[in-house]
Amino acid sequence: MLDTAFDQNNESISALSFDEFKKIIVNDYRTALESRYVSLLGRKEVLTGKAKFGIFGDGKELAQIAMAKVFRNGDWRSGYYRDQTFIFASGISDVYRFFSQLYAHPDVEADPSSAGRQMNCHFSTRVLDDQGNWLDQTVQKNSFSDISTTGGQMARVLGLGLASKLYKQNRNLDYLSYFSNKGNEVTFCTIGNAATSEGVFFEVINAAGVHQIPAVISIWDDGYGISVSNETQTTKGDISEILKGFQKEELTNGIEIFKVRGWDYAGLCETYEQAASIAREKHIPCLIHVTELTQPQGHSSSGSHERYKSQERLQWETDFDCIAKMKEWIQSSGIATDEELDQLDREAKDFVRQEQKRAWADYIRTLTLEAKEAIDLLARIPNEKADFAAKKLQSMVEPSLKEVYGQVRKVLHELKGSQTEGRRELLDWYKVKQENNEKRYNSKLFTDGVDSPLNVPVVAANYTEDAKIVDGREVLNLCFEENFQRDERLLAFGEDVGKIGDVNQGFAGLQEKLGAHRIFDTGIRENSIIGKGIGLAIRGLKPIAEIQYLDYLIYGITVASDDLASLSYRTFGGQKAPVIIRTRGHRLEGIWHSGSPMSVILGALRGLHVCVPRNMTQAAGMYNTLFRSDEPAIVVECLNGYRLKERLPENVGEFTVPIGYAERIKEGEDITVVSYGSTLRVVEEAAVELERLGIFIEIIDAQTLLPFDKAQLCAESLKKTNKLLVVDEDVPGGAAAFILKEILENQNGYYLLDSQPRTLSAKAHRPPYGSDGDYFSKPSSDDVVETVYAIMHEANPEKYPSMFE
């Protein structure tokens, strides 16, 4: 039954001697035991209070060992947070690092996956060096950073797998040899049976069958999703049964579907070897439904499965525990004696306990050192509050940085403004430590590497005297063409992007010029469009993932927010996915296409650069910057700007617009008006009417919202005008409130005002259909005129008498 199985070095074991064969089996059994004891001990560590929360992979050990046998250097995992056995068996991580993550050790050496930022069983490999440069992915086994979002690991599988397909087909990419060995990689995805009820699962299964990507998708089926059984979760109670329509047949695309029991070690090894071979050699996606798995400790450390499982089910789980069944198989096959197996059991338990203690000791050592420093400094201060704080820290059974710095801060509060002995030393120590804690807990929202967009040189747009006047869409089209000709890594895809060149013609004609492997269509599946971009980007390509309209971003927001936006932060700068999400919005008319949910983006997508160009020339300059850098971004083009006339720069594919810098587009002395995107043209129209009323406004184009106005141009303008209006078409209290906060707080603009700052936004409801609905729902030029005039009236009612009294 193991004739075709492979060991972890991918060597056939069919011709091995008995001793060599036994060594492989015994090693697998040891790995399973160690992983099980990790789960058992890990739960105890949570219940005793040493760790905050725990989730473990007990019951899935044998299937994950079988998967690890066919997982090679260069391959990628996009996994489920119960894959600890696979991680141990593949060598991606180990028991010490598992417990370090369980304790949230804020040291990247102890927890390379996240430096203590993610809960246990959330694994990743580091693919970047300390400067943000790519490491060689082909010489290591790669794991994309796990997320807790149910089913969220599915979306990026498309890009991870499609990258192999593109590297295999496009010889012009051979120079990127540190990302792929000519496409000879497989992406392994794992998901729990209950999570297959999520829409993104079906999106990805469908798209994988269309694209024929080299992927092996495993479903760990233990019969439940927390307390909800398969019969409630899934039609027919069997996910592979209802996926039979996706089964690949001769002369069709589709997927190969396998079904194997999770306690059948030999069957698992054979199934994974077969599926991995099909995916790697034929680029046909495979799905392995691993059934009859167990979950001995229940879903997590927060509850007990005895509450919802019958006694019959619990007894079955005992009888068919995969490790117990493997032990039976080893015994019946005469591979090892009972004494040998008992010895393995003792060794595994001792090893796990030893590594747990080592991880805890190293974690505590870091905390204890800082606690001791704080106690020593507090003891030197002749103050009752300081003495109490020192004694409280000394009495801590288990040190906590929260407790250490909480006590220090309380003492500093007490001693504010005093010259008490020892206060200055404590304060200086605290400031240094706060810088360290900033790095530990608040850094790496962006990679901030050598290729950050903030480091891209500014190149001005050049215009000849006889520069062509063209539609804005033509500026974008030429920008894209020049960049795609320059950089083979660039790709663009989305609904209607390929054949017709997107609904607004930004890519018109480029598929024919560059090929369908560079510019291509997708189905209507926003989650997987963004996920595809994420997977392609981490594998060294430069994707533009197009979401046809800004409103549709809502359908992909979980992937964009939970996976893409947090990737650099949650890996402590160990991974990046410089995908560009391209979309269009603003001034759309109708409830379902209102076009400006900017506050959703600002709230959900911290970790992306948010670009809001006022026209297509500015958009082209931003794309030129982003194409030359390595951090994710979203660019929201103005839907009503594609046919507006613009001058064509002669360096349309080279000039850059700096990310994070506002631009003054009209000088004025009476009031500063800040806006962006299509609404900026409304402000410019209002400026003409206001000048007839004797009011001269200074107009600032934000250009990007994240980051916002790094040079503090808005504050500089306020020094002259002392009045502020922010105009945008998001809901009240949305993006305009965000801009107001940035100016008043971060730029100290509050101190420059001599009147109340104002915002002018859309109504709280979505706009009704039609131009009249737009006029009465979103800021019009008349609204801008009246709001500016009201501010001037408040400041000088004699010069500017009320319009409506």
UniProtKB/TrEMBL annotation:
<feature type="domain" description="Transketolase-like pyrimidine-binding">
    <location>
        <begin position="470"/>
        <end position="644"/>
    </location>
</feature>
<dbReference type="GO" id="GO:0009083">
    <property type="term" value="P:branched-chain amino acid catabolic process"/>
</dbReference>
<dbReference type="InterPro" id="IPR009014">
    <property type="entry name" value="Transketo_C/PFOR_II"/>
</dbReference>
<keyword id="KW-0560">Oxidoreductase</keyword>
<dbReference type="GO" id="GO:0003863">
    <property type="term" value="F:branched-chain 2-oxo acid dehydrogenase activity"/>
</dbReference>
<comment type="function">
    <text>E1 component of the 2-oxoglutarate dehydrogenase (OGDH) complex which catalyzes the decarboxylation of 2-oxoglutarate, the first step in the conversion of 2-oxoglutarate to succinyl-CoA and CO(2).</text>
</comment>
<keyword id="KW-0786">Thiamine pyrophosphate</keyword>
<dbReference type="Pfam" id="PF00676">
    <property type="entry name" value="E1_dh"/>
</dbReference>
<dbReference type="GO" id="GO:0007584">
    <property type="term" value="P:response to nutrient"/>
</dbReference>
<dbReference type="InterPro" id="IPR029061">
    <property type="entry name" value="THDP-binding"/>
</dbReference>
<dbReference type="InterPro" id="IPR001017">
    <property type="entry name" value="DH_E1"/>
</dbReference>
<protein>
    <recommendedName>
        <fullName>3-methyl-2-oxobutanoate dehydrogenase (2-methylpropanoyl-transferring)</fullName>
        <ecNumber>1.2.4.4</ecNumber>
    </recommendedName>
</protein>
<dbReference type="Pfam" id="PF02779">
    <property type="entry name" value="Transket_pyr"/>
</dbReference>
<dbReference type="InterPro" id="IPR005475">
    <property type="entry name" value="Transketolase-like_Pyr-bd"/>
</dbReference>
<dbReference type="Pfam" id="PF02780">
    <property type="entry name" value="Transketolase_C"/>
</dbReference>
<dbReference type="InterPro" id="IPR033248">
    <property type="entry name" value="Transketolase_C"/>
</dbReference>
